[in-house]
Write a structure and sequence with these properties.
Blueprint (H helix, E strand, L loop, with lengths): L2 H7 L8 H4 L21 E2 L15 E8 L9 E9 L11 E4 L27 E4 L28 H14 L9 H15 L4 E6 L1 H12 L4 E7 L12 H18 L1 H7 L2 H14 L2 E6 L6 E6 L1 H11 L9 H9 L4 H10 L10 H15 L15 H7 L21 E6 L7 H8 L5 E6 L12 H11 L4 H4 L25
Parallel strand pairs: 4-5, 4-6, 6-7, 7-10, 10-11
Antiparallel strand pairs: 1-2, 2-3, 3-5, 8-9
């Protein structure tokens, strides 16, 4: 599996919310221009000439200097970038909401504008604080491979050795910082920022991998947590990338079952899961080479469609509630021998503008230090004949790993009111992980949206649930029932050709 495939498969990461936020640009503040001196007061975010207006006016930005190694008094320091939407209330509530992004490797600041609607009502009464986790965004980021190393006209595995060598160079470049880019250090940074900003208690919202950071923070600093909303649970036991195949298989089965249970879909497309398996087997035996008009530029583009690209495309589509509607149609066309739609989708999803801005050095630091140690005996399941864990396992053989505290893999127990959100069709953090986390949280409410994929907060009435829960730290049963309105979207049904009839005289 090449880095292109790694980045593509991990757009939301293995955990990342980028399936929801992909392609969105950083339009808030330019924290690179802020002072690196620790301050207890943030300043108005700066904008470069020509920047688009921010989604939220009056945002404040700043940087806080923290030790790279919190355990050493003589440690070098790094900057942690922070952005805040001040409450618009003249008398705001004293407890803000801290936002923790996913990835691992995603910048909370860079995706902040995508959450405007979800937090619209809560901004009326509380500050919203975005913290770029160390190793991401503007917080001592660890980036790798600025350019896309794979041509769509060659097999995905053709540049495997080249990409691994590039990653070795990246590992060497970041060797001194990579061991300190793990979750426990992020927790220490969050506590530093909370104290520096003068908040006595806070609420947490986290998505995907960010839920792991939030849980660790809840365990380490229980007295400062008023409430937490965790979307797409990724606890320390998740063990990516080894669990990816099984979770993707589950999500594909959910989409397929819906189609086969609806006569209109079944009659047009058959069983999408069976179609996917047959297409994967065919491409593994004989990849298909074709030239298509690029869906974005209309320029001719040569594409070699192989089993690797196919598995990546199907899995990526399963992250998104709307895109997954197309899967039965797309797979049926391919099974019938028409690969044009698949090739166009591959071309579009792998376009440079659609690649997420993920700090892959930080991503590998977390995965290799934490996930790969969580379940060493676990054998990864394949997805459509492709081993999704292969390259990550090879990278972790040479990536600098960090030390973890004793009992790090013990489930977090906490008493703070917590709302857990899961999507029934999530291909990376399915509901079972929410169920496991809830067992150790005394005041947890776990809601599963039957029609949601990876990321529930921005779907349907979920933002209303979020607002009510943060305000009251509980949900009435009648309120929670609205999660049942987030149902699976109907599969796209291609129009049937009209049957000709003889005109009557």
């Amino acid at each position: 599996m090449t880095l292109a495939r790694t980045q593509w498969l991990y757009r939301a990461g293995a955990l990342v919310w980028v399936s929801v936020f992909s392609g969105l640009l950083f339009t808030g503040c330019d924290t690179a221009n802020q002072s690196s001196t620790t301050e207890t007061r943030l300043q108005a975010c700066e904008r470069e000439p020509g920047d688009s207006p921010p989604a939220v006016s009056g945002a404040e930005c700043g940087r806080f200097s923290v030790p790279l190694d919190h355990a050493r008094a003589d440690s070098e320091h790094i900057d942690i970038a922070v952005k805040r939407w001040p409450s618009i209330s003249a008398v705001p509530e004293p407890d803000p909401i801290f936002i923790i992004a996913g990835g691992p490797g995603q910048s909370a600041i860079e995706v902040s504008d995508t959450l405007v609607q979800a937090f619209f009502n809560l901004r009326k009464e509380r500050d919203i604080v975005f913290v770029d986790q160390r190793g991401t965004g503007q917080s001592a980021p660890l980036y790798c491979l600025e350019e896309q190393p794979v041509s769509l006209a060659e097999p995905m595995l053709a540049s495997h050795a080249k990409v691994l060598e590039s990653l070795r160079q990246c590992a060497s470049e970041h060797a001194s910082k990579a061991p300190f880019m793990t979750t426990p250090y992020a927790v220490a940074d969050l506590e530093f920022v909370r104290e520096a900003l003068g908040y006595s208690r806070i609420n947490l919202w986290a998505g995907s991998y960010g839920t792991r950071v939030a849980l660790a923070y809840m365990g380490a600093h229980p007295s400062v947590i008023r409430s937490a909303v965790l979307d797409g649970l990724a606890p320390v036991s998740l063990a990516l990338p080894k669990t990816m195949g099984a979770s993707a298989n589950r999500a594909l089965a959910e989409v397929a079952q819906q189609c086969t249970s609806e006569p209109a879909c079944a009659s047009r497309y058959g069983d999408p899961a069976d179609n996917a398996r047959r297409v994967a087997e065919r491409l593994a035996q004989a990849p298909v080479r074709m030239t298509i008009d690029d869906p974005l530029t209309s320029e001719p583009r040569e594409i070699l469609l192989d089993a690797e690209k196919f598995a990546s495309l199907v899995r990526l589509t399963l992250y998104d509630r709307i895109l997954s509607r197309l899967l039965p149609h797309l797979l049926a066309r391919a099974e019938a021998g028409d690969f044009s739609l698949l090739a166009s989708a591959v071309s579009q999803f792998m376009a440079a503008d659609n690649q997420p801005r993920i700090a892959m050095g930080m991503h590998f630091s977390v995965i290799c230090s934490e996930d790969m140690r969580a379940a060493p005996a676990l054998e990864p399941a394949s997805f459509l004949g492709v081993d999704l864990a292969d390259t990550m396992i090879q990278v972790c053989e040479f990536w600098p790993s960090g030390e973890l505290p004793d009992h790090y893999f013990t489930p977090v127990a906490a008493d703070a009111p917590t709302l857990l959100l899961s999507g029934e069709r999530d291909p990376v953090t399915p509901p079972e992980w929410g169920e496991r986390v809830a067992e150790h949280l005394s005041q947890a409410t776990h809601l599963v949206a039957s029609g949601a994929h990876h990321g529930v907060t921005v779907q349907g009435c979920a933002s209303k649930l979020l607002t009510e829960f943060v305000r009251h730290t509980t949900l009435e049963a009648s309120q929670a029932e609205c999660i049942d309105t987030i149902i699976p979207m109907q599969p796209y049904l291609q129009a049937q050709p009209a049957q000709s009839t003889e005109a009557s005289e």
